[in-house]
Amino acid sequence: MTRSPTEATEGTRGARTPWAVVRVLRDRNAGLCLAAVVVSGFGTSALWLASGVWVKDLTGSDALAALCLAAMWAPTLAGPVLGTVADRTRRRPLLLGTNLLLAGVLLTLLTVDSAGGVWVLYAVLFVYGAAGVVHDAAESALVATAVDRSLLGDVNGLRMTATEGMKLLAPLAGAGLYAAYGGAAVALLDAVTFLLAAALCAGLRVREDRPAPAGGGRWAQTVEGARYLWTHPALRPLVVAGGATMLCAGVSGALTYAVIDALGHAPPYAGVLYAVQGAGSVALGLLTGPALRRLGERRFAAYGIALLAGALALRAVPSDPAALVSSAAIGAGLPCVLIAALTAVQRRTPGPLLGRVTATAHTLVFTPNVIGLAVGAALVELVALGWLLLPPAGGLLVTAVALARRLPVRETEGMAASS
User: Fold this and answer.
1) Most confident residue range from 99-113, 213-227, 356-370, 399-413
2) Most distant CA pair in the chain: distance in Å?
3) From CA 380, how far away is CA 252, in angstroms rounded?
4) What is the pTM of this model?
């Protein structure tokens, strides 16, 4: 069903209620989507931690262990191309197939029991990352179709809450399971979570028309999505701001253990900082829907970036209270631009383009994070901590001001019709 801009605006007004979260949880499709995020996110977070430890135990090499994260992230660079897959078929069957594929692929890790089998783990993680790009694009597009448009901000906020909540619990569970039974047990757990996620996706009630035959080749389709994103007056500023934010956040992330050293703590103190950061993200996720409706996507993102700028500056203070407050503020500020950009893409992109536009946005936003991590890692032993944290904080503040000063785009301008 196609909704006019007027209807979309009225739907947004109707959602201005403190009980919007309750409305989301009562919505069958939204509830199933959130449950699938929780289940699969639990397995992914557990495997993310266990894979590096697994390689370290098998090879004794820190460098080879670090390659696990690189193998999972590398396919993100091909996001604009992989995203076209989500636009060439119906999204619900694609999600089902992707979940079942990952469940099957993970079972091959049951054969890894020596350093000679590490290549299998890398291959699985690479496939995991590539399938994840397609999965995220298809899921975002399906949510935009299956959930009332006025609830998208609430749904994306709760997805952030669910994801961060799993990051608080799953690594501990994964570490415990690995210590007791080894890496194969963690892989089996992750496979089971994808089977459960597939069952939840099967319960979605959504009517999807078969996509029209695509014109042109794969490259032409990829360019079409990138062109739409880059020329849209509301989407481009948010995506550019998101990439700049993740670049600065990457630099800060690489300094975590330097911050801990400055505080005089042992490396395991990182677990405390990450837990506090996750708690900040969980709290932010619960407030996202009302904040987005009150502020709009652009101002919501700008305020979050400004909060992140202050958090990075505070991180330079060698004090436990300052470090804890900074971590909580990072957790609350960093997701704002990510949620705002995703919600804007879902609301303002035509359905046939939504998969590739989502994947392209993810590539443009998250690739700078890897660059920032590399820059921070290269400089952390050469430059004083304060001099490394203050430039990213200043860059974030400039980004926030530039985003806030842009002429506002009307909520109905460029609003995509959903079918």
Assistant:
1) 99-113
2) 61
3) 10
4) 0.72
